[in-house]
Structure formats: structure tokens, C-alpha cells
Write a structure and sequence with these properties.
By secondary structure, the protein is mainly α. Helix content is about 55%, strand content about 0%. The chain is built from six helices and no strands. Helix 3 crosses helix 5 and helix 5 packs across helix 6. The protein is globular. The N and C termini lie far apart (about 60 Å).
């Protein structure tokens, strides 16, 4: 199989077939189908591999610079990052892993937006980003900030319930 691409978890099907019973069975078997039974359990933050977080950070940064901050669904390779992540996760954690990765991706993007605006207050999405502006933004710094915000939110909810 040299030179062959690794198959996706989902196999191959057309978008128009998404609601077919056979595709639904494939999605369910892969742990990627949202049902009434698992809808709420997917909205949870779980540990995901550092390699996946690093892959998303680097891709988000590369695409942010290439597209001048525009989120372009036509040229992104983010689905590859999610597919790689899903291969690394247990079946029952795949939905939550995707949800968790969305949170990381959003935080990385927001950090890049903030850095671009800090370097140039007149910068707007679509305008070229100054060279080197994102160099100070690290995955670790973004994730540390995410943890601080999560802890602060937890403290606020505890204070309210007391």
C-alpha cells in the first residue's frame, strides 16, 4: 500500500448520503454520531494528546498568516487535524475530543487576532499581518491562559452558589 493515503475514519461517502442508514451506522461505529443519548456528553473538555494540540496550533498559525486572518474553509487542512486526533482517541471520547479541540483552536485563533491588533491597532482581518507579530504567541502561553480563565470561571460559579 505504499503511496496510498491513510483511510479516514468515516470511509468514503457523499454529503447527500449523510442521512442514509448505512452512513449513520458508519458514523455511530466510529463514535462520531451525535445522538440524543450522547449529545450532552460530547460537550466536555477532556485531555487530548499534546501532539494534536501542537498540530492544530501550527496549522492555525500558518493559515492565519497565509489568509491574513480570514477563516477560509476552502483552503484549510483542519479536518486532517481532527481526523488524526480521532485516530488517537478511544471511540467513546471522540466527540468530546472534537469539542475540546474546537476550544483549543478558538483560543489559538483569538491569541493570533489579539497579537495582530496589538502590533497594529488599525489591523483588520484580510489585511496582511506584520512579519514576526505572532512569534511571541506560543501554544503553551495560550493554554496557560485558557486554564486561568477556566479556573476563574469555576471560582465565580462557586462564589455564586455559596
Amino acid at each position: 500500500m505504499f503511496g496510498m493515503q491513510k483511510p479516514t475514519i468515516l470511509g468514503t461517502f457523499q454529503l447527500s448520503q449523510l442521512n442514509s442508514s448505512s452512513v449513520q451506522k458508519q458514523l455511530k461505529a466510529a463514535g462520531l454520531l451525535i445522538t440524543d443519548e450522547n449529545a450532552e456528553s460530547r460537550k466536555r473538555i477532556i485531555p487530548i494528546p499534546e501532539s494534536s494540540r501542537d498540530e492544530m496550533f501550527e496549522l492555525t498559525k500558518k493559515e492565519f498568516l497565509r489568509e491574513n486572518g480570514v477563516q477560509n474553509g476552502d483552503t484549510t487542512k483542519r479536518s486532517d487535524v481532527y481526523t488524526n486526533l480521532h485516530w488517537k482517541m478511544k471511540k467513546n471520547d471522540r466527540l468530546a475530543a472534537g469539542y475540546t479541540m474546537e476550544k483549543y483552536e478558538g483560543a489559538y485563533r483569538q491569541a493570533f487576532l489579539d497579537a495582530a491588533r496589538k502590533a497594529d491597532p488599525d489591523w483588520k482581518v484580510g489585511k496582511p499581518v506584520k512579519l514576526g507579530v505572532l512569534d511571541a504567541v506560543t501554544r503553551e502561553s495560550v493554554e496557560t491562559n485558557m486554564k486561568k480563565l477556566a479556573n476563574k470561571a469555576t471560582q465565580v460559579s462557586v462564589d455564586i452558589t455559596v
